[in-house]
Amino acid sequence: MNYFKEILRYAKPYKTSGILNITFNILFALFGALSFVSLIPMLDVLFDKTQAITEEPVWTGIQNGMDYIKGYLGYYVTTQTESKEQALIVVIALVLSLFFLKNLFGYLGMYFIAYLRNGVLKDIRDDLYAKIINLPISYFSEKRKGDVIARTSADVLQIQHSFLSILELIIKEPLNIIFTLILMIILSPQLTIFMILFLPVSGVLISRLGKKLKNRSSQVQREQGYFLSLLEETLSGLKVIKGFNAEERLQETFESSTQRMNRYAIKLNHRKGLASPVSEFLGILMIGVLLWFGGRLVLTEESIDPTTFIGFMALAYNILTPAKALSKASYQVKEGNAAAQRVLEILHTKNEIEDKEGAVEMSAFAKAIQLKNVTFSYVDEPVLKDFSLDIPKGSTVALVGQSGSGKSTIANLLTRFYDIENGTISIDEHNIKDVSLKSLRDQMALVTQDSILFNDTVAANVALSDKNASEESIIEALKIANAWEFVKDLPKGIHTNIGDSGGKLSGGQKQRLSIARAVLKNAPILILDEATSALDTESERLVQDALERVMKNRTSVVIAHRLSTIQNADHIVVMKKGQIVEQGTHDELLSKNGLYHTLVEMQSLG
Questions:
Q1: Which residues form the ABC transmembrane type-1 domain (predicted)?
Q2: Is residue 466 within 8 Å of residue 506, measured between CB atoms?
Q3: What DSSP character marks residue 55?
Q4: Which residue intervals of 47-83 are DSSP H helices?
Q5: In this predicted structure, what is the pLDDT of residue 104?
Q6: Which of 50-59, 116-125, 339-348, 453-462 has the lowest mean pLDDT?
């Protein structure tokens, strides 16, 4: 129930809709109960049980309410109607009016709760998305993307189907029961007390039945996350799967997941399926016992007249529907708890990389980037050990070394995708932990090895940092990046959709769009993370030419795999196992005949 309280906080902005829903539900419950009571006078007229009364009865209190209604009906039939048929029409009109009002108020209640239910659903999804895009990169290296997608889609929907449905039930159905019980007490306190004593028995049976439902629901939701993750990975890696003839292996993995989900879902549905028949049978059992007990009162003791007893039984049956709905609600709470737990787990995740209190705005980059005695590890083994480096403004610094030497980690730390464990990273003598993330990243443009593009137009991808960028500035950025030559020939030019992950473009074209995106941002610091390593020779030449244009008048940190692309760098840093082993210009490093010389020779031979 704690999770329910947390989800309920999202309902505050929609309290007006909630209040209107409650108001109409009160009226729905009241007229619902009265509509069944109105059957008693109709039956009295129909079976000629109406007493002839010439004096208008006096209201003496709710405890004698039914006697007053019957007395007033007798008075009305005696003094205001000319025939029994006319009296019957009047009573039927009363019954129809009450049922019409009941259904009208029921619809209005549902009308206003729709704003609350869907509004809460939207706000939870908005908060989840905001949390996801603000969580550090490290969070997603530990989580499956499919699981995160499942929590944002299926689990949030489950919250709507369970918790938000209960918002309707916890007002509407209890009121139905309360109003109905009040009228039943007025009709026959003896019968009502007998029925109330029977209710706890069904409550105990239903609660025992739903004991394990939360665990079953959690299993289904976890497996659904794994299943979606497999699907996402399959769609992303179709080329590799087909290239390695791994279809059968992936199919087996997928079918194992769906088999588990099928098994969990069947057990869950079996348990859920018991809710309706058990609660309905218990309700009918209660009606059967009431018929026996009430029948004795009518036939033997004559303490209740037949038409009143029929009306009482109609009210008793009217309790069955809300009671059944409330029994289902106990199951829904358990399902909702499991879904809410998974959703709130993301919302409650502490963001380790965020602006500290009093973070300052970084002004335009003016002097240098400094890394002093930096130590960092992704898991246990350090990736960088006591690493220090100065990068003056306007210089091009290249980081080279074998895979796993820590080159890309430098880019991740400069942009604060990860935070260092020891040491400091400062820009213009400001520790990057002391400045706001937005102002820090405003100083940087990033081009990665993998061209990360979105299923949108060329213009939207290039202008990612500035949604108000003009067409002229977008085209200028494309020209600098050597991309205009192919973009101008696309069907709709810069307004052409490039498909999922830029799938309609070649690798070199995608990378040039990534460079154009960096050009448009016009940041003083440029980080190139192996931007040409995945390209063919012709594409590399075009991309390298574009990069050289972009790097002019900028401070550039180049993480290089192909050493031929960084020979003109002002400073080359050779790394091995997270430490600097050599540094200098291209010519200086070659003359040392060390690791850099070896790497150059290996690539020349390759």
A1: 19-335
A2: no
A3: S
A4: 65-80
A5: 94
A6: 50-59
- List pLDDT tens digits, range 39-83: 766 666 656 565 555 566 666 666 565 666 666 665 565 665 656
Q: Rounded distance, CA 178 to CA 30, Å?
A: 9
Percentage, residues of the chain above pLDDT 90: 10
Q: What is the pLDDT of residue 45?
A: 60
Q: CATH 1.20.1560.10 spans which residues of the chain? A: 2-347
Count of all residues that appear for the chain in the document = 606
Global pTM exceeds 0.90: no
Name the one residue in this structure whose structure tokens are 């031929």: 564
Q: Topology of domain 368-605, per CATH?
A: Rossmann fold (3.40.50)
Give the separation between CA 240 and CA 250, rounded to whole angstroms: 11
What does 480-535 look like in DSSP terms, one character per residue?
HTT-HHHHTTSTTGGG-B--GGGTTS-HHHHHHHHHHHHHHHT-SEEEEESTTTTS
Is beta strand 368-377 parallel, antiparallel or unpaired with respect to 444-447? unpaired
CATH 3.40.50.300 domain locations along the chain: 368-605
Helix (H, G, I), strand (E, B) or coil at 425: strand
Task: Measure the CA–CA gap between 88 and 268, rounded to whole angstroms.
Answer: 51
